[in-house]
Amino acid sequence: MPEFSLNHIDLNLLKTFDVLMQERSVTRSAMRLGRTQSAVSHSLGRLRGIFNDVLFSLDAGLMEPTPRARELADVISRALADIRLVVDRHLNFEPAQTNRNFRIGLSDYTAVTFLPTLIESFSALAPYATLNVVHAREPDVLESLRTREVECAVLGNAKVEGDQYEVVELSRDRMVCGGWKGNRLLDDFTPERYLTSPHLQISADGTAAGVADTVLRGMGLTRKVVATIPHYLVAPWVIKGTHLVAVFGDGVLLALPEESEIRIVPPPINLPEVTISLIFERNVSFDPGHIWFRNLITSVSDSQKIRKEQIYERLDYPLQLTKRVKRPRRLPRPPQRPA
Fold first, then answer.
1. Is the separation of the CB atoms in 88 and 288 below 8 Å?
2. CB neighbours of 309 closer than 8 A, spacing ≥ 6?
3. How far, in whole angstroms, is CA 55 from its chain's centroid?
4. Is residue 326 part of a domain?
């Protein structure tokens, strides 16, 4: 094999590789790059020859990177980001003119609370730019940031380790209880009624215990979880017409339609708030485009806080009401589902 030389490769090839790693599709990569599919396929062929590796293989219609491609992506994506950062420092970033692609990771919860307003504001301020939203889970988010699959993420109660990451607290969401408005038990939702009610748990992986379970376990108590679902927007329609109750962060209030017939009451036990954080790598901190995007996310978060307070006022929600819970000697039977 002949000795490798930088004369064999150019910046456009590396950019093509970086986009292929993000999109996992020649078609979508061609659209992002403004090139034809055949041109992107030709570049991929050159990259395979240069690195003496197939780089991507098809798996269920998706291009899965090889171990060597993943190793290369870690270096190439970071190098391209550093190059863009150096160039952007000497140019004026104009949101109204840029055609840059921004990528953000959101969990199901933060997507419910952030996405509608974020997309509306993003489109108005940067009409030629594009925004890619990637589903993000805490176990995977640091890898997604490291490989530049996303350039920032917004998650709840994220535990981030590593000096190379910046974590900015955006808000603290209160925990609330939600049930169908026809559930008369909500009129006086005592700790005993909370414990004996059938619960709907909302968990990203469909199995994990919730914040309420952790708190109750510390008190030597348990609740009756009858079903677990992965998506917040499904919950109101599962609860409607039943005696099911669910506990969730108050960001969900921003997305509750009136026809869902969901009633919100304070939890009868003390539950910790959900800390919503913006996470990104420190080495993009001074990128003008990234700064603009982070400021936009912060602005959206601030506007959501105001909207939530307005919702609380409209609902006449008692913000400081939490009852002390005691282990009942004999638990009453749960209510029967109405016919």
1. yes
2. none
3. 29
4. no
Residues in the chain, overall count = 339
What percent of the chain has pLDDT above 70?
89
What 3-state DSSP class applies to 16? Answer: helix
pLDDT score, position 8: 65
Q: How far apart are CA 100 and CA 84, in angstroms?
A: 11
Longest dimension (CA), the chain: 81
Q: Say which residue the tokens 């953000």 belong to.
A: 104
Asked whether residue 192 is assigned to any structural domain, the reply reads yes
CA–CA separation, 156 and 166 (whole Å): 15
* C-alpha R_g of the chain: 24
Quick check: is 202 in a domain?
Answer: yes
Q: Yes or no: say if 212 and 267 are a contact pair by the CB < 8 Å rule.
A: yes
The CB density around residue 238, as the number of other CB atoms within 10 Å, is 16
How many domains does one find in the chain?
A: 3
- 260 and 192 in a single domain? The answer is yes
Two structure tokens written together for 90:
């000497």
pLDDT tens-place string over residues 136-156: 988 889 889 988 889 999 999
Does the model's pTM come out above 0.85? no
Q: Give the structural domain span for 118.
A: 101-172+275-308
CA 1 to chain centre: 45
Tell me if 277 sits within 8 A of 169, measured CB to CB.
yes
- Asked whether residue 81 is assigned to any structural domain, the reply reads no
SS3 category, 281: strand
